[in-house]
Amino acid sequence: MAFVKDMLRMWAHSWKRFISIAMITLLGVAVLTGIYAGCRDAFRSTDRFFDAQGLHDVQVLSTAGLSNGDIAALRKVNGVAKVQAERSQEVTFDLDGRKSATMQEIGTDGIDQPYLQEGRMPKKAGEIAVTRKFIRDSGKRIGSRLTVTPESASSDTSDADNSGTDNSGTNEASGTDEAPSFPTKLTIVGVVLDPQNLSNPDGYSAMTSFRSTATTDYTFFAPSDGVTGTLCTSATLLVKGAAAESTFDESYENTVKQVTDRIDGTVKTDRQKARRQELLDAGNRKIADARAEADKKFADAQSQIDANRQQFNQQVDQIVSMQAGAAAAGAAANGANAGAAAAAGATTPQLDETTRETMRETIIAASPELTQAKQQLDQAQSQLNEQKASTEQTLKTKENELKTSIPQVRWYVQDRQSLGGFSALKSDLDSIQSLGNAFPIVFLLVAVMMSLTAMARMVEEDRSLIGTYVGLGYGRLAVASRYLLFALLACLIGGGLGLIAGFLGIPAFLLVVLQGMYVMPGLRLEYDWLYGSLGIALFVVGVLAATIYACVQEMRQTPASLLRPKAPRAGSRILLERIRPVWNRIGFLGKVTARNIFRFKSRLIMTVGGVAGCTALIVCGLAINDTVADLGIKQYRDIYQYDLMVVSDDSDASAMRTKVASDGRVTSSLDVRIESGDLAISGGGDGDSGKAGSSGSESIQLVAVPEKHLSDLGEMVTLQPVSSGMLGTSGVGKTGSLKLDDDGVIVAQSAASALGVKAGSKVRLTNGDGVRATAKVSAVNRNLIGSDVYVSETYYAKLFDSKDAKNTKNSKSSEDSEALTWNAMLVKLSGSDTSQTDYAESLEEDSSVMKAVSCAHMADSFKFDLMGAVVALIVALAGGLALVVLFTLANTNVSERVREMATLKVLGFFDREVHHYVNREMMILTVMGVILGLPLGRLVGGMLTMALNMPSLYFEVEVKPLSYVIAAVATMAFALLVQLFVNPVLDRIDPISSLKSVE
C-alpha cells in the first residue's frame, strides 16, 4: 500500500510531465483521427444519399440515341440489376441573356431520383422541379411560370423533311422512334437537388471553374406526363451488389468495372452495328416511299398530259376529215357523172397515214391556237420527263450517299467517375485524407522524442528511490510499472480527449467547410471504434516504448550504484574552444552557455529535433497554402500564353472563327481541334484497357494542332519538358526547348504524374469519338491545372485512322489542310484583363460559340477553399505541438539543473539574471531548431506531390519567403511564451533545499 501511495505522490509531483505527454498524445490522436473521420463521415453520408436516390452506377450514351432494342440488350447483361431509359431535351430561355437547360424526365424505375428540398415533386404535364442554383440566379420561386424553346428543334425537323435522309441518323430512329419532346409552358412546383451534382450554389465552390463538365446551365426535372417520343437519350443502370459497397472504395469500382467490361464487349459492338442498320433501313424506307410517291405523282401527271393530247389530236383529226371531205366533193362536182359526185360526197375519203400526218401539221401550222396548244403539251411532257429523270437521279444519289451520310454509331459507357460533381468531391476528400495520413507520422515521432526526454528525466530523478525499492526486494518490473502506468494513463487520457477532438471537433470544422462547397443531406458525425482504438494504441506503444527504454537504461545498474548520486559528466572541450580567436572574445556567461549547449548532446538533439519538427510542420502547411494560391496564376498567366480559348460545334466552326476575327480584338490566333478524351497506361501496346499493366485513366483535353502551324503552339503555350526527380519532385527544362512533332504526343504534367507516365512511355488515347489508339509519349510538358495532350495533325490521323488526313504533311493545297475540323481557337487579345473577361462573356452569347474561356478570369477566380481550411487546421495543430514541445523541454531543462540554478542564486544572481541565463540557452537551441526546420519543411513540402495526387492537378510546391518568416516568428513567439511559464518556476527554486546533499 505504501508503494502505491508513494507512486501516486510521485505522479502528482510530476503533473507537468503528465500534461505534456497527454497534450502531445491529444494532438497526435486528433490529427490522426480528425481528418480521417471528417472525410469518412462525408464519404459515408454521400454514399447513403447516392443509394437512397439511386444514383446510377453505369450510364450508356449513344450518338444516335437508344432504341427499345438497345434497352432490352442492356437488361440481358449479366450483373445488371436495373435499367432505366432516360429521355431528355435541351431547351433555351431568356434569363438576362440566352440560357440553356436540360429537360430531364424523372425516371419511374428509381434511378437518379432528384432529392426534394422545397415544395413538391412535379406530377402533371407542364410542371417542373428546378435546382436551387436556378432559383438563386433567376429570382423565381415556386409557382413561377417559364416558357422555353426546344434548342434547334424546328430547324432540325424542317431539314429532315426537306432532305429526306440527311438527318435520319439523329431524329429518325427506325421509322417509328421519335426524339423526346417536352412541354414548353412550364410551372415551377418544387426545388430539388440533382444527385449527379452536389455543388452548393449558396456557398463557395472549389475549382468549379475548371472542373465543370455541364453542357447546359441548368437542369429541369419533369414527369413522364406530357413527354412524347420513344427514342431514349441515354440509359442508366444499377449493378448488382454495388449498393452494398462504398461508392468511394476500390471494391465498388471493381464491381462496376466487371459490368462495364461486359457492355464494352460484344453488347456494345453488336448494338452499334444493329442501330446503324436500323438507321440505314429507315433511310432506305424513306427513299422507297419517296420513289413510290414520286412515281404516283408522275403517273398522274402523265395521264393528264395524255388525256389533253388525245383531246387535241381528236380536234385536229376532225379538221383533217372535214378538209378531206370538202376536197373530195369539189373533185366530183367538176366531173360528168353527178351520181358519182353524190356518192363521193356521201362518204369520207380514205387517206393514208403519211397524207393524214402532213395534213395535221399543215392545219396546226396554219392555226396559231393549235400551234400554241401543241407547244404547251410538248413543253409539259418535256418538263415531266426532266422531273422524272432528276428525281430518279436524286434518289439514286441518296441511295449511294446513305451509307456515308449516316456515321458509325458509337456508344459511350461511363461510370460515376464521369460525373463532374462526383469526381470533384472524391478528389477533394482524397487529397485531404492523404494529408491526414501523412502528418500524424511527424506528430508520432515528436511524441516519442518528447516522451523519451520526459520519462528519462523522471526516472533519473527517482534514481535513488529506484535503488531503494530494488534493494528492498521489489522486482524491476514492479518498480518500472510506476512509470509505465504513468505514461499509459497520460496517453489514455490524452488519447481520449484526442478522440473527442478527432471525431467531433475537427470533423465538425471540416464538414462546415465541405458544406460550403457541397450539399450533403443526412450528414452526421460517426465514431469508428476500431480506428479510434488503433489510433490511441499507436501512441501508447510509442510512448511506452520510450518509457521502457528509459527504465532499462537506469535499472540495468545494481541497487548500490543506483543509491549513489549519478557521477557528473566528465568535463571535455567543445569544438568552439579550439577556435581561439572566437573563444577568447566570448564572455564568461557566453562560454558557460556554449558548454551547456554542446556538452549535453541528448538535450541538444531532443530540443533541436523537436523544434525543427514543429517548424517543419508549420512550413509544410504554409507551403500547401502558397502552392495552391499560385496554381491559377502559374497556369493561366505563365503556362498559357494565350488570353482566350473559344470552342464551337464542328458545324459552327467556320462561323465562330469569322465572328472572332471580325471583332477586331485579336492580335494573334491559332486554330486547333479540341476533344474530350481519355488517357490510360497502355496494357501491352494494344490499347486494351483489360490488359495487365493498365493502372487507371485520366480525363484529358486532346488538342490537335495543324501540321503547318506546329511551331506556333509554343507562342500560345509555354512548352517546358519536365522529368521526375527524387521523392516526388520534378525538374523543369528550358523554356522553348520542347517542340511538337509527328513522332508522339506531349502529355501534361498533371496527367503524367497521376499515371506515372514519362517520355517514351506507351499510353492508350481515346479521342472524342471514343476511338482508342496506342500512342507514344514524346515528352511531358509542365502543366499544373487540367490535363492537356497535344498531338500533331499527322500523328492524329495515324493514330485514329483519319482517312482524309493521311497526306496532310506533304499537302500543298489549303483544302488538304482542312482534313480535321478546327473547332477551337487559342487567341491573344488586346485590352485589359477586365475587357478580356467581358469579351469572353459576350462571346458565349453568340449561337456559334459553345464555350469561351478567359485566362485572366480563370487566374483571378481560381480557389481551393477546402485545402485552405485544412492548411489552417494543420498550422494551428503544428503550432500547438510546438508550444507543448517547448514547454516540455524547458521544464525538463529546469528540473535537470535545479542545483545549478540554486548555485547561481547563492552566488548573487538576481532572478532576472537567472532567467536570462536559462532562457538564453533555450532561445539559442530554438534558433538552431528553426534554422534546421525551415529547409526540412521545404523538403517535406516538396514531397507533397506524392501525397496530393489529384485528377487534373499537379502541385508544384512553392514556399514564399514570407512563409519562412511566419514559421520562424511563430516558433520564436512560442518560445517566448514558454518563458513566461518557466520564469516563475525558476523564481520558486530554494537554494538551501536544492543544494542539500542527495545522500
Topology, pairings included?
Elements: H1 2-13, H2 15-53, E1 58-66, H3 68-75, E2 80-86, E3 88-94, E4 98-105, E5 115-119, E6 127-131, H4 132-138, E7 145-147, E8 149-150, H5 153-163, E9 185-193, H6 208-211, E10 218-222, E11 232-239, H7 250-333, H8 338-346, H9 353-366, H10 368-405, E12 411-415, H11 420-461, H12 463-471, H13 476-515, H14 529-555, H15 559-563, H16 580-583, H17 588-599, H18 601-639, E13 644-647, H19 653-662, E14 666-681, E15 697-705, H20 713-716, E16 722-724, E17 730-732, E18 745-748, H21 749-755, E19 762-766, E20 772-781, E21 788-792, H22 793-800, E22 824-829, H23 833-843, E23 851-854, H24 855-861, H25 865-896, H26 898-906, H27 911-942, H28 944-947, H29 961-987, H30 991-994
Parallel strand pairs: 4-10, 6-9, 15-21, 18-20
Antiparallel strand pairs: 1-11, 1-12, 2-11, 3-4, 3-8, 5-9, 6-10, 7-9, 13-22, 13-23, 14-15, 14-19, 14-22, 16-17, 18-21, 19-20
Helix pairs in contact: 2-11, 2-13, 2-14, 2-25, 3-7, 7-8, 7-9, 7-10, 9-10, 11-14, 11-18, 11-25, 13-14, 13-25, 17-27, 18-24, 18-25, 18-27, 18-29, 25-29, 27-29
Throw out a few tags for this protein.
999 residues, alpha+beta, six-stranded mixed β-barrel, 30 helices, 23 strands, coiled coil, transmembrane, transmembrane helix, ABC3_permease_C
Question: Short description, anyone?
Answer:
This protein is of the alpha+beta class and 999 residues long. Among the domains are: 580-637 and 863-998, no CATH class; 638-682 and 697-800 and 820-861, no CATH class.
